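FAQ: What does a multi-protein file look like?

Like this. Sequence, then tokens, then the next protein.
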Amino acid sequence: MKRLLSIAILLSAGFANAIAQDATIFPRGEKAANVHHVGNVWLVELAEADSTFSYSTAQASFDAGARLDWHQHPGGQILLITDGVGYYQEKGKPKLIVRKGDVVKCPAGLPHWHGATQNSGVTYLATSPVQKGKTVWLQRVTDQEWEAPASNFNTNTEKEILKLSKDKWQWMADKNVDKLSNFFHDKSEFVHMGGSWGKARELEIIKSGGIHYKKADVHEASVQLIGNTAILLNRITLLAVVGGNEVTNPFMVTEVYIKENNEWKLGSLSFTKLLTPGNNN
């Protein structure tokens, strides 16, 4: 299982790079002086507070390894993670991993810090009410705090991916090509024992019954999140009709999901036939 996951991670990295779009929306801004942070950080003020709007909005971009000092906001702050992978930690709580698409609410007056991970930069939009005062800077984040183990900020993501995978098997069994067409990424790839092909051919095969995925019994599943990519490994027993013949085979199925426009799409589906039956729970 671990070996297959390692292979899947390497393959998905290349796939993600191939379909990734330029995530930059706003200019990067100016490199900030290292006064209240460690590493390289770029800031750009997007909208200043005025007599009508009592909050400001800025973009911050961190190189891998960069992080802010501990600090607090008298009026609180909201972070919209727009790119990369980073850390967020509130005083007295575990450190969390944040990713593109996450929304973080920093409570008013609560000491916290945020920044990039060791291997990935992070970019976010920050909006803060200013009527109660500016950021209050505290002590520097220690190496021990920054290197401590971290948990996923959005633990529901794994459940979301697992549910999507389950729904996909049902759509394939029902030959619901309308659902699948929206679910499959336009550049998706499908790897079978008899060959590999893209989205259009996979949909046609499902629609025509060339391969009818009648029933997939899932015995084991795990999800690995890497930025905006999710890799799911399924150990299944698949009952299918191939060329008019009903067959049952054990497979390890690797599914790669890509998050685009806040929606998960299936980027790759690969079947690896197992030498041992897949119904050992």
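And here is the next protein:
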Amino acid sequence: MTFFASEIVNGLVLASFFALVAGGLALIFGVVGIVNFAHGDFVMIAGYFFYELYVHLQLPYLIAILLTVLGTAVFGGSIYWLALRHLVERAWYAQLLATLGLSILFENIAQQIWSPNALSVATPSTLQVAIHIGVGANVTVQDVYVFIGTAVCLICLWLIITKWRWGKAMRAVAQNREACVVSGINVKLVALLAFALSTALCGLAACLVLPMQDVFPTVGLSFTTQAFVVVILGGMGSVRGAVVAAVIVGLVEALAAGYISSGYTDAFGYAIMILILLVRPTGLFGDRVQRSGWSSL
């Protein structure tokens, strides 16, 4: 029971990371309409941002997180405006090739600046304290921070999407871009805001997971593939579906790693995706995405 509870905790931590990264990817596809194969590299870059702010500049932990999230959002918005906005009306294969090229560019720049070696960030001692949760397992304060940070972020994302003026505009653009243009909505600005918001989620994900995961130039590829598994499972363009799928994939991979082998964790994620797609080819929330282009949290 103790081991099972520990693996459930590990699965929820992994699910929190997946939810942030895949939620941003689903947001990009649903609103902007771009299949972004460089999405995981924004997590990688955010990890380096956080490393420089927290380790080299020795800023306080929370200040470093805040600046990393803001910096990643600005960086992502700039990349979209300078390069990716020209891909919105292009075919999917043009988007694939362009974003793959951008991913390779990011990896090579990271290697030149930080070297190919993995970098790690030591967790603050206050976050290493273990808390007994009463079911034979312990969680660290770091785990609690991950849970709370992810929950607060997803609630804020839901409020932005459903209550904020520009969030409602994102939903409208996802449903019918042409009608939004006719009605006077600044579609280009909405897409820019959506892309910046999605990369801000990458920034937070990097900050929360970096004390538990090394960062190196090619790590973005694994983040991208994991995010696509979650997004496809949840339904392309569905943020809510991405969150639900993140929990499923996170728990399955953690339990598989604990009871079978840690060397096949990604394979179990692919397996659960294939099994569900055999039953629901459009994903868990794909039917709503096909009708409206959007599924809110």
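Q: Is there any per-entry metadata?
A: Some entries carry free-text notes. For the entry above: Residues 288-297 have pLDDT under 50 and may be disordered.
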